[in-house]
Amino acid sequence: MIEIKDLHKSYHMGSNSLHVLKGINFSVKEGELVAIMGSSGSGKSTLLNILGMLDNLDEGEYLLDGVTIKNLNETKAANYRNKFLGFIFQSFNLINYKSAWENVALPLYYQGVNRKLRKERAIKHLESVGLGPWVDHLPSELSGGQKQRVAIARALAAEPKVMLADEPTGALDSKTSHEVMDLIQKINDEGKTILVVTHEDDIAHMCKRIVHLKDGVIVEDKVVDQVRVTPYVQ
Amino acid sequence: MGIFDRDLWSEVFSTLTKNMLRTFLTTLGVIFAIVILILLLGGTNGMSNGFNRIFAGTATNSMFMWTQTTSMAYKGFERGRPIDFTLEDVDLIKQQVSEVDIIAPRIQLGDFGGTATVIRNGRTSGSGVYGDYPSIDLVSKKRIVEGRFINQNDIEDSKKVCVIGVDAYKLLFDKGENAIGKSIKINGIYFSVVGIYKKNDNINFEGENAIFVPFTTFQNAFNSGNKIGWMAILVDPDKEVAVAEKKIKTLLKRKYNIHPDDIRAIGSFDFSEIFKGISAFTLVLQGFSFFVGTFTLLAGVIAVSNILLITVKERTNEIGVRRALGATPKIIKRQIILESIVLTTFAGLIGFVISVAALHFLDYKFGHTDEYPFVNPTVSIPQILFSFILMIGLSVLIGLIPANRAVKIKPIEALREE
């Protein structure tokens, strides 16, 4: 699903140049649940940005579902993001004046789906993350865990090939973190490819494979026994 | 995702209504600009209409011509020789000068501006007495308050009838007395009154203490022969009055052996010059209104742009999220420009309502009296359309500034901001 060969990326700030990614080789097959770990400055966010087409790579190759991703203009990048990728952010990034279903329907809006169909599909996704009764609520009326579930529903809405989660539990307490990871595992069980960036060990071990980044290179790439989240009594 | 998409508009309105006070204050500049623009244009129109009322009834493409005395010796004639036009001159001009439409010759008693003694039942008035053709009414219209003006029958039959001004009426009749059909005595000859006129707010030579009698009657009654005092000349609307004036003068100077450079021998007054001056004045005023209005509007729209720049900054994160979710630069741009248009148009409509109300008030206050040259101060549909197109055009142009700023937001930078 994802194929990365010899990826390099540096940032230039004035006369200084910062080589962030120094030759990453990495591939993800369909249905994998991969944790990308590393301390801050290891380059994991940069890698995620490049995977998410939010940033351009300097050198190397990036294939997503067989499509070469390189030198995209803004419009094309936006269309690819919309079609291929679902984003989950640490700080949820919901639009605060839109109700839960309108937030979920946003990627569909950019696909040109009509309002009625958008609402139908958004509600279906909200129900699948257990937020059926909350479709008309504003983000400010939801708890942190609920917000992240809305964000996950939004990432699912456009039926993407890959979901990219950037510290999805970073802003949550451990109980809600586990709820969110439970949801991510269930979505993965249905066959969705998911990449999770995290610096928490226990979260990483809830994935099926852990990739360790340090100073811009992959230092470890191992398959782990997935720790299933203990279901909480709701 | 068309322009009529409900979500597009709901997004525009939700961002604009988020901070109502700020939105309103932002629009004030545009509101004032439109008020100023419409008021200036309406005021100019009101003035222009006012001037038109003053000149109502006076043909704009007309002139008057009369004789004076020569000021240069020529062909053996001494200077200071008096010249008199005759009815033959009228025919000559009609034949030779194609620019002329109508000539209304006139003869008066005494010298120009002189008066004759008019007597009725022991009352007297010193009124100007003129012998006229009905066509004079085409050049300088009178408002008939009672009866009628001189007509062709009066001319043909040399009827002893007259039309008197309201001032002459006041001098000769009791208040409320019926004058039509009554006789008055002018220089010993009786004339029967057929009409009373009032001056028409316009340029007026005769005043209201004057008496008009048919030209032919005048000739018979006062033995004036073929002599005429002056001519009111109506020129073809497509032709220049000045050109006709020059041709006529050349023609008559040759006929009367006047030195070609003698400017005193024949007097004339070109009305079109005054009208040209006044229409140039209102045109300049209109141009000035648009100039002031446009720049005030520009300032107002820049204020809108400024506030949109601020909202773009506030919404950096939101725009970043939208970009990450698949919003293309075009979609983001369109939304910001729509916000600019909506704000400006909304303000423009408010300004328009205020200014139209103000114009109505001005009209009510000043538009219905004869004291001010100010009538019906309204703006025309093309002026309104022009103002709105100008406003929307400016809002789109200026809206591009925040729109481009919004497009420059990189999703990663926007999302990093925590």
From TrEMBL, chain A:
SUPFAM superfamilies: P-loop containing nucleoside triphosphate hydrolases
Keywords: ATP-binding, Nucleotide-binding, Translocase, Transport
SMART domains (UniProt xref): AAA
Signal peptide: none
Keyword Hydrolase in annotation: no
UniProt-recorded Gene Ontology molecular function terms: ATP binding; ATP hydrolysis activity; transmembrane transporter activity
Annotated Gene Ontology cellular component terms: membrane protein complex
Family, similarity comment: Belongs to the ABC transporter superfamily. Macrolide exporter (TC 3.A.1.122) family.
Name of this chain's protein: ABC-type antimicrobial peptide transport system, ATPase component
TrEMBL record, chain B:
Lipoprotein found in the keyword field: yes
Residue span(s) of domain ABC3 transporter permease C-terminal: 291-411
Cellular compartments per GO CC: plasma membrane
Membrane-spanning intervals of the chain: 20-43, 290-312, 336-361, 381-401
Signal peptide (residue range): none
Bilayer topology: Multi-pass membrane protein
Subcellular location: Cell membrane
Chief localisation class: membrane
Residue ranges occupied by any MacB-like periplasmic core domain in the UniProt entry: 23-250
Protein's UniProt keywords contain Cell membrane: yes
Recorded GO MF terms: transmembrane transporter activity
Highest taxon of the lineage: Bacteria
Keywords: Cell membrane, Lipoprotein, Membrane, Transmembrane, Transmembrane helix
PANTHER family, A to Z: ABC TRANSPORTER PERMEASE YTRF, MEMBRANE COMPONENT OF TRANSPORTER-RELATED
Family statement drawn from the similarity comment of this UniProt entry: Belongs to the ABC-4 integral membrane protein family.
Descriptive protein name: ABC-type transport system, involved in lipoprotein release, permease component
Organism annotation: Galbibacter orientalis DSM 19592
